[in-house]
Amino acid sequence: MKIITWNINGFRSALNKNAFDWIVVFEPDIICLQEVKVKPQQLNCQSIDVLKKYLKYWNPALRPGYSGVATFSKIQPYFVQKGMQDRKYSGEGRILMTKYSNMILLNVYFPNGKRDQSRLEYKLGFYSTLLDYCDFLHSKGEKIIICGDFNTAHNDIDLRNPKLNRKTSGFLPEERLWLEKYLEHGFIDIYREKNPEKVQYTWWTYRNEARSRNIGWRLDMFYISSNLLNYINSVEICEDIYGSDHCPVCLEITNEVLV
Length: 259
What we know:
Layout (H helix, E strand, L loop, with lengths): L1 E6 L3 H6 L5 H5 L3 E5 L20 E5 L9 E5 L5 E4 L12 E6 L2 E7 L10 H20 L4 E6 L23 H12 L2 E3 H5 L25 E6 L6 E6 L11 E5 L6
Parallel strand pairs: 1-2, 7-8
Antiparallel strand pairs: 1-12, 2-4, 3-4, 5-6, 6-7, 8-10, 9-10, 11-12
Helix pairs in contact: 3-4
């Protein structure tokens, strides 16, 4: 089973760039999109050939043209939930949970702290609230996959210029500490687990030809519950896929997790 996570930076923009054509060849079973920036009623997804095989679930932001996540699945989930119980984090369309027989998939678009750090407190609170929720799910024995745009690079290896970005939101010590806490609470950064020394990125600014120069950050990730480790076949950063300032990341997991 293949699960894709991708911050597409605008669903309609990605469509106009034919960004979804690769799905026909790649054939993912589940597609988790972030920053869709659109509400489903603004689209006719049934007319989009590559998505006709998928069940479609949306959690758009209340604010038009902003944030939002969507999950497309060939597998019928047992349960779907939008957002978290804390209303403070429910209006921006940042979380969509799909529960399968033996796995919970959280499609998450973590907040950006902004260069002026004006949203830093909100971002850190979001990390905290989500981790509390995951702790609750773990206490019930659930297997969890968090995928999406974490909006934070964890270590120096995860961005091209770590020294220049020590005081930049996305690489601040307090942000990185929260990623560490997730690892301490039973999660594994599966890409880094499989590739401890490999340097790859998933986001490049549109400025100064950053992508062609590979001046990027690894912001898009799969964090899996440690009890899922033996079910993982591979994880791949698809840096050759265009259509956004981010690229997709693909997790291949054995079908046994659904049994």
